[in-house]
Amino acid sequence: MTTTRDLINDANDYLMNTYSQFPVVIDKGRGAEVFDLDGVKYLDFVSGLAVTNLGHCYPNVVLAIQKQIQSLIHISNLYYNKPQIELAALLVQNSFADRVFFCNSGAEANEAAIKLARKYSFDKFGHGRHEIITAFNSFHGRTMATISATGQERFHTGFEPLLDGFHYVPFSDIDAIYRMVNEKTAAIMMEPIQGEGGVIIPSQTYFAELRELCTRKDILLIFDEVQAGMGRTGKLFSYEHFGIEPDIMTLAKGLAGGMPIGAMLARDSVASAFTPGSHASTFGGNPVSCNAAIAVLEVLLEESALLQSTQETGEYIMESLIPMKKVCPVIREVRGKGLMIAIELTVPGGPVVEECLKNGLLINCTAGNIIRLLPPLNITRDEVDTALHILDKSLRKL
Ligand SMILES: *Cc1c(COP(=O)(O)O)cnc(C)c1O
Prior knowledge:
It contains 13 helices and 15 strands. A hairpin with a 2-residue loop joins strand 11 and strand 12. It is 39% helix and 17% strand. It is of the alpha/beta class. The site of pyridoxal-5'-phosphate (PLP) has 15 residues, from helix 5.
């Protein structure tokens, strides 16, 4: 029998060393729970990093995958496939957008957004107006273009030269945007709520002012909703919180319930800058991933109570953390939107994550000292209480 130890030894021998991994091999998942190779159970408040938003192996998602995998697993985009078209229609009918381009990941969706923004600006204004303003502390992916868009030095070091034409401003600071915008600016690209950077929520007026500026200057507003989209914040898309609409939006993580997918959506007037040959992706719009995404969207659209309870459960968690903050001096701040919640510590979060793991709770630490909670949207109160109990115990140990 292959033991956990054997597998981890093999991982150390054969996998490229890009992740610092916990010594656990996850073997099964059901709802908010996962089980390791030895049958040990964990409550999953990571959700594959905001991917399995309906929990693991959600029955309708499993069915949609099974059904599709038996009839067609892949077909080239030289031909149409039904799940891709139906998913595009669902996304368009429920967002600001008119058209969708499908790919396989968040980074790839952002690559497509960057290319579309440049092409739109080139078609309309010619050479030289290609610059994109993004935020410090942002995260847009790990490809060369998306690390260039990411306003954090630690993702750049060792990989220079970066792609030209990106400028960074402090997040949620409208004056900084006014100072940075010039005749070369083609787009402004932002996460509506910064995820990897530590669940940073902008001021309520920031995006309204940004929208007004972008419209006035024909600068495209790109929202990277890869993490905050798909119901995570209690709205289907998190731009809905701010009373404005972007020109381009990217989705990935939670879109297909765990199947790899990315999507880049835009209004017609912008999308029309792409013509046959402009952009492509072999696996993009894969029928299995798209059918899974249809199942996810149907749940989010038809069970309107789910988005409501996402907000309520999020508020419940944050309220429960207030008394914890009072007795735990290491908690600096608790913040969040829906079920995207951060506990900012005054100390590194690694030991808390390890202690929680030992006690059967998976959580994530980002930006060094920020505990990020991303439970499935359909998490129960009992599961939340169990998780909060483990978290409380682990924090007190610090
Ligand atoms: C995770 C993430 C990405 C990158 O997605 P990948 O699928 O890992 O390429 C991009 N933007 C945001 C906001 C993310 O959270």
